[in-house]
Amino acid sequence: MFKLFLEMSMLAFEAQQAIWLRGMKLAAGGSAAEREAGLMVSEKVSAGQDAFFKAATGKAPLGIVRGYRRKVRANVRRLSKMR
């Protein structure tokens, strides 16, 4: 249970980083912001479906959270390289 708490806490922290970086990119406007908005929506739908199917097939909550963290960290790395 403690591992799940730690993973969820880190997910919350990393998600805030991604939200802030995305906000900066969207605030800059232009075609890059439009692409990012579209990507954000498609990622949310895909991540929600993925989590639903993992939960429906009996995957442990810890594994589901770790999967989300991988995706969020990838977004933070990508968004940190804004040009």
- Would you report the number of β strands? 0
Distance between the termini: 40 Å
Strand content: under 5%
- The tally of helices reads 3
Uncertain spans: none
**Chain-averaged pLDDT:** 94
**Total discrete domains:** 1
H and E string: HHH
Helix and strand composition category: mainly alpha
Whole-angstrom Rg:
14 Å
Helix content: over 70%
From the spread of the alpha carbons, the general shape counts as: flat
Largest sheet: none
Report on this structure.
The chain has helices at 2-28, 30-56, 61-80. By secondary structure, it is mainly α. The chain has one domain. The protein is flat. The model has no long low-confidence stretch (mean pLDDT 94).
In short:
With 83 residues, this protein is mostly helical. The chain has helices at residues 2-28, 30-56, 61-80. The chain is flat and about 40 Å long.
